[in-house]
Amino acid sequence: MLISRIASALCRSACALLVSGAVVLSSLGSAVAQNLPLVRDAEIEALVRDYAKPLLAAAGLSRKNIEIVLVNDPSFNAFVSGRRIFMNTGTLMTAETPNEVIGVLAHEIGHLAGGHQERLRMQVDRAKTMAMVGMLLGMGTLAAGAATKNGELGGVGMGMATGSTEAARRSLLSYQRTEETTADRSALTYLDATHQSARGMLKTFKRFQTALALSGTRVDPYQISHPTPRDRIANLEVLARKSPYFEMRDPPELQRRHDRMRAKIAAFTNGRGSTAQLFKQNNDQEAKQYGEAIEGYLHGDPRAALAKVDALIKAEPKNPYHYELRGDTLMKANRPAEAADAYAKAIKLDPARSSVLQVSYGQALLAQGNPKSAKKAVQALERSVAADPENTTAYRYLSQAYGQLGQVGEAELAAADGHYYSGNFQDAKIFAARAQRKLKPGSAEWQRAQDIINYRKPRG
What we know:
mainly alpha; 4-stranded mixed beta sheet; globular; protease; TPR-like_helical_dom_sf; hydrolase
């Protein structure tokens, strides 16, 4: 009985230690965004996609529908799951140049191109098997020791049982460090292929090394899943400096877009005065003015904020995101008709055809409260969800727009879709069943409701 209880406890311990390295992988499926504070912004998404596009082409992934997702988190981090690259806003705001972000993206694309996620799952399964086999052998030795009343043999068995878990864990960490090194090397290849410098990558690792040194933390290199920053720099610096593109600089226009992005993130996340603080050592007046205009919209009088936005538009009349900010400011001033015009202009000028702008336009139309505008809102929001089916905000406004028009079945179906893509499957099924009773049987809408009702969450 005692041996059975010990075996059970060790089994739970082994599984917990080994599965912990795979929790992120197993929990980040199609509904990965459910527990992450995501950011949707047309300007930032377009810029980061422009950073990634040539790298994806170099890696042979340009046709794989790789999506970049922004996470509202101030720490410097990025990771991959499925066909998504997740990047923290802290990474974007900390990076002083586009090249630093491009280096991070090149590394993550290296993971995707190398199929590292699937291989890591296989390694986790292998490590679990190693731990279990070692534990069973240890239990057999422990049982033999108990049967023969040989305490020394029993101690050996216990050591084998517990040691197998540690050995398997170290094997898994070693594998992860190897994959990280491989992704670093792949990143260098993609940067060379796209005639870009690896200087940004090295700067990122040196930043990590400095932060680690300042923290005073002593790190056992065999107990972590990534190589230490010092080791990564040593492995990459010679190769990086041999590249004919090492001295390449970011194009000035790309740097301007990058600075505006940093100003926007600072204004939204760090409050009033944050833009001036961010650019205290940088005389980028354009980015500073943009950030201060956003701060005025967020914290100031709408009329004064609108004057700042109009000054931006006068200086750069073809920038779609200035018109987007004008629309945001007018919405705050309760002038939805004028806001809709501003958003319409932003959509017309936007080369990326962002679904986010369509949502803002639909929201402004909906706020006017008349059937004609509600019909236009439906059209805009339907375009948004067609381009971006997982945009839950769009479904919420689409449901309201259909409700204003008295189309209750369509309104409830939009609500069902919103709950479905939020991962709230129970409410999705409730709204889908309610929608079906009001929709024409056999229609595309009716069938969509049936698909939601029939959905079964995958196991594991």
